[in-house]
Amino acid sequence: MTVAVAACQVSPVLGDPQANRCIVAAAVGDAANAGAKVVVLPELVSSGYVFSGRAEAARSAEPVDGPTIQLWCSLARTHHLVLVGGFCELGRDDALYNSAVIVDHTGLRAVYRKTHMWDRERLIFTPGDAPPPVVDTEIGRISTMICYDLEFPEWVRIPALAGAQLLAAPVNWPTYPRRDDQRPLEVVRAQADASVNRMAVVACDRTGVERKVGWVGGSVVIDADGWVLAGGNATAEAQTVTAEVDLDLALDKRVGGLSDIHSDRRPELYERVTR
Amino acid sequence: MTVAVAACQVSPVLGDPQANRCIVAAAVGDAANAGAKVVVLPELVSSGYVFSGRAEAARSAEPVDGPTIQLWCSLARTHHLVLVGGFCELGRDDALYNSAVIVDHTGLRAVYRKTHMWDRERLIFTPGDAPPPVVDTEIGRISTMICYDLEFPEWVRIPALAGAQLLAAPVNWPTYPRRDDQRPLEVVRAQADASVNRMAVVACDRTGVERKVGWVGGSVVIDADGWVLAGGNATAEAQTVTAEVDLDLALDKRVGGLSDIHSDRRPELYERVTR
């Protein structure tokens, strides 16, 4: 089945969840009107990213039943689509988590907490330790993980082996010294995540300089073979990147003749990886 | 230390090890004269690839102390360089292996047997089950694996975690339906292998149509960040792709602020990958 997948590369306002709800509602409405059935939002789009420390992050944190996720559920119901986005979660344990949700027209389907902490996130957030969820939706099985998680192929394997057809990843890719004549490596790594698993990947980046930190702005939709269908170039613009994605490709892991990218694995030889 | 690394994308003759020794001697000599200190050859460059079956492959197979590897050791000694290449190995057990060697001026340093069998290889070769070797050479720690092995990130992790600075991969990348407007996915995956490990990667592809099978011809030298330094585009031409590579980058796994691409792994959570 071919599905229109959109990544809403917006510019959230640091420390203003109310403003960010409005930004998200507008972007999701536009994407839905353009036909999107899966809409992905950036990491921490409820709060912004470049916190001075834990105390500032806590002021933008919300429980998973707070107003941000309530709104997102309402948007998914109103527009009848699957919505995946990142938010600053206040846990019942009062810890802060860099989290993502998968919601659909029926409501909240899964919460995921980022597991691999980038740079100073480790000073603010508690890392998750649960595997990425795989949610059976109307349009296929969808998983999520967040930004730096994508750089750990062992982690990407987990939802892929569990049958995910689309990995929808909220990201905030900070600018980093780069070669302008080549595709951003954040995108290259996401292409490989797709390709070695035959699983479609959509990554939704952000834009808008925040405390002098800029972003790649490389939101991208990638098919199950690893080809870029839309986006995937650095940009400073807010934009919605959309492509039609054939999620059925991910149901067949054959990659050439007798080869099957999952059953050709030799897991009994990989134990060193878990040490 | 910056080192000149060359991939000799030659066109071996199917079933003619003697001819292939000549082809390799000429290409390695040229690369050495141009200053290369590490020279990489394609997969099965001793024999060609598209065998009708096991019996035909056996006729081109040689033990590891046969004339092909003897020649390669001689070339490494004469030119004082590290040579990594693929050959059709006849084991002491009479099994055939799709193997690679690492040799330097002191002689044979390591033999590796391809572990992940592409397509019909499984009908001809016995898969290896030993991890990729990591060899301490004059110019740094070098590992090898072969072609399809590169598509299993768990496998690439093993030499990277063991300290390899350069992964030298003989490959035969058969042509596959592709988008001409994007970098070949074989190259994209190799870039990600480098990037998620901060380990330089050189892949040496072949050229020359063999029994109607063509090749990407995408030989590439990639730095420890994942950027393509040379090659990496599809071509039908025989060529030697060369770049100066800073192998010291691989000694530092930090990728931004407090982030370290290896120590940020959560191996205790990856056990599902080995099942």
UniProtKB/TrEMBL annotation, chains A, B:
Pfam family, one: CN_hydrolase
Gene3D superfamilies, alphabetized: Carbon-nitrogen hydrolase
Hydrolase listed as a keyword: yes
Gene Ontology annotations of biological process type: putrescine biosynthetic process from arginine
Keywords: Hydrolase
InterPro entries: Aliph_Amidase/BUP (IPR050345), C-N_Hydrolase (IPR003010), C-N_Hydrolase_sf (IPR036526)
Domain CN hydrolase positions: 3-247
GO MF terms held by the record: N-carbamoylputrescine amidase activity
Protein name: Carbon-nitrogen hydrolase
The organism of origin for this protein: Mycobacterium aquaticum
